[in-house]
Amino acid sequence: MIPLTGLSDRIVIGWDIGGAQTKCAAVGPDGAPVGKGSRSFEVWKGPEELDEVLKSLGQEFCASERAVMAVTMTAELCDCFRTKMEGVLFVLDSFRRSFPSSEVWCISGRGKWKSLEEAALSPGDFAATNWRAAAAWLARSFGSGLWVDTGSTTTDIIPLIDGVPAALGSTDTERLIHGELVYTGVVRSNPDTLTDRVPVKGSMCRVADERFSSMGDCYLILGDMDASSYTAPTCDGRPADLHHAVSRLARLSCSDTDSINVHEARIMAVYLREKQIGVISEAMLQVCSRFREPLSVIPSGAGKFLVSEAARRIGLPETGLSGVIPDGYETHLPAYAAAAGFLSTFK
Amino acid sequence: MIPLTGLSDRIVIGWDIGGAQTKCAAVGPDGAPVGKGSRSFEVWKGPEELDEVLKSLGQEFCASERAVMAVTMTAELCDCFRTKMEGVLFVLDSFRRSFPSSEVWCISGRGKWKSLEEAALSPGDFAATNWRAAAAWLARSFGSGLWVDTGSTTTDIIPLIDGVPAALGSTDTERLIHGELVYTGVVRSNPDTLTDRVPVKGSMCRVADERFSSMGDCYLILGDMDASSYTAPTCDGRPADLHHAVSRLARLSCSDTDSINVHEARIMAVYLREKQIGVISEAMLQVCSRFREPLSVIPSGAGKFLVSEAARRIGLPETGLSGVIPDGYETHLPAYAAAAGFLSTFK
């Protein structure tokens, strides 16, 4: 790979290729943000469509061959791929096909930027990297803290110490073990993963092991989220509104809106929110138990309201992202940090 | 039994005979409180000492034969008694021996006052009554609400609707089933009953199934309670102070103060507090799920700080006891309400 040169007049597009969502954010040569985009795209339903998603998002920035792509991903875990290595190679190939004459760079699990061609030689090192660039960016900005990002699907809990990420895990499996990754989020999570029973008409009622509802339905019912934040298909394909959310959640107890009203659904939703905050708090405490001093929590993601509440409960102070991430880019933090971090690394 | 007469010049002493604590509170003929008392007394260690405990507490009020005893109890569940009926009869006999010439009245599981002699004919109806008189008293005072009393050992969650208690359970077993009784409290509860692992040095560590520590140790460590509220013997017999609380809690993870410091113990304690609030919230939601409208929570007991926090989390407003229970008598609510409720029933 020819060493990267001439970043002084090129935009850098950061990418966050998730299993259910693809996001990008671009910065200009001066580091100022110039735009962002996203698509709900479930990779496992038709991975061959990824090329189209990348091209269509790239076109929003008139991505010329002079644009540089800075790539992070988690989509490689989708079960349409036999292994994570196969998944990483698929994503890399899709970038090469979609932007044949662009430079494409990827961040590794150890935080190093490598060209697409280098990355393809050791694809295992480039899996599950969507938190890497953001962790480095936030560590540089805040020095120390506990960055907790609750997204639609997962929660990252990354300690930052003296300007560098202090994560113990580099693979997702290691991160799950250390409490640095919790597979729970505010939209797609299945309530079944949080509890085996819910309060219904005075009893604790066992739940149906089906995919009838998502945590996004709970947060619609509770007013914690609106439809625009419901960044995934609903379980029944019907709208992301209060009425249909109640209908979906009612089925968790094998019921329906003939027998469960909004107030009763709200009690189930409150209970599930408590369970989800509990899961996030537990992992935060696990990570904190490695350090001798309390860390200030930096919440982010669509579910940052849960993170703020968890921090309050376990007695940790909170620090906002204001001034560190441009307004409107918080929802695109991994993509923005990939672009901005890449630029500041190579400029 | 001769019908009760002449309450116009007699004091009524209300009793709350628990398994680990005996409490009493007295009111004068005009209903004004005239005193209260308590003893830490573990009935199962020597039930025959109950007579002495009753007599010594009674003497604090110069309990003459003109004093009326209004009795509630839960001590009958102690495993020194073969059955609950045997336990109730033991308590009744102890009252008769201790106050041979006093009138002794007991409240039944259905809220009816009966003389000791009548109660002895159907002892099963007089088990687990320590919440009954208080529920009736609070229902008369507040109309509707959710009375939640977290004591040293257990939590009562009693819905009050239109001036009367609306509990579904009358026996403890029924109350456990309906979420109206949760066997968890702020002093005596074993952390093992709240979780099977705790955060330690970056891992979730399994716990020792021993009686090394109590939740009272957690609340000492967190500063939620002071030594004067630690109304039970500590597990190791050493003092109820921060240093010894850390030492006891450290053993939960088979550790000691050589390897677990105060900050690390604090993280374990925060985690256990979260679990305990979760257990209380769950039962509150179970009970609330029977009603179409949200109820205002009335917290009481040594653990009312947990109840207030649980109410906040599940979005219920809170109402205080101020003006309903005389200052200083909140900690003796069942005994006070037995006395005051008895007086207002028969006066």
CATH topology type of the domain at 7-132 and 326-346 in chain A: Nucleotidyltransferase, domain 5
The CATH superfamily label of the domain at 7-132 and 326-346 in chain A reads: ATPase, nucleotide binding domain
CATH hierarchy: architecture of the domain at 7-132 and 326-346 in chain A: 2-Layer Sandwich
The number of distinct helices of chain A, counting runs of at least 4 residues, comes to: 10
- The CATH class of the domain at 7-132 and 326-346 in chain A is identified as Alpha Beta
Q: Please describe the biggest sheet of chain A, giving its number of strands, its sense, and whether it closes into a barrel.
A: 6 strands, mixed
Task: Give start-end ranges of low-pLDDT stretches of chain A.
Answer: none
Strand order, sheet with most strands of chain A: 3-2-1-4-5-6
How would you state the average pLDDT of chain A, rounded? 94
**General shape of chain A:** globular
The value of Rg of chain A in angstroms is 20 Å
Give the ordered list of helices and strands of chain A.
Answer: EEEHEHEEHHEEEHEEEHHHEHH
What is the strand tally of chain A? 13
Q: What share of the residues of chain A does DSSP label as strand, in percent? A: 15-25%
What oligomeric state is this? Answer: homodimer
| Cα distance spanning the termini of chain A | 17 Å
